[in-house]
Design brief:
With 100 residues, this protein is of the alpha+beta class. The protein has one domain: Ubiquitin-like (UB roll) (Roll), CATH 3.10.20.90. Helix content is 24%, strand content 19%. The relative contact order is 0.23.
Length: 100
């Protein structure tokens, strides 16, 4: 799996690993289809703040794992006057204990 952390909502997206062999532009198009964020409004970064070059292959960056995901920011959210809302999943303590 290829992991992309959507910073604006605090959610982790998982993508098909085959996207790692494609260009960053192709990944942006996939994100546009799944998240409704236009390609020109996406900012993709790796840990350390390096921006992903649209013409490079995703696999040329050492990122996209569950412990080191690609970070997605939406320029639309950054430019908006309304702050983003977090995607919160409420679960009981018993449900958490079952997962452990």
């Amino acid at each position: 799996m290829l992991y992309v952390f959507h910073v604006d909502t605090g959610t982790m997206m998982t993508c098909d690993m085959n996207l790692a062999l494609e260009s960053v532009t192709h990944l942006k198009e996939h994100i546009q289809r799944t998240c409704n964020i236009p390609c020109d409004k996406q900012v993709l970064l790796v840990s350390g703040g390096e921006s992903l070059d649209p013409d490079s292959r995703v696999c040329s960056y050492s990122a996209g794992t569950d412990t080191n995901p690609i970070f997605l920011f939406s320029k639309s959210v950054i430019e908006s006057t309304t702050p983003p809302s977090a995607n919160v999943e409420l679960v009981s303590d018993a449900a958490i204990a079952k997962k452990l």
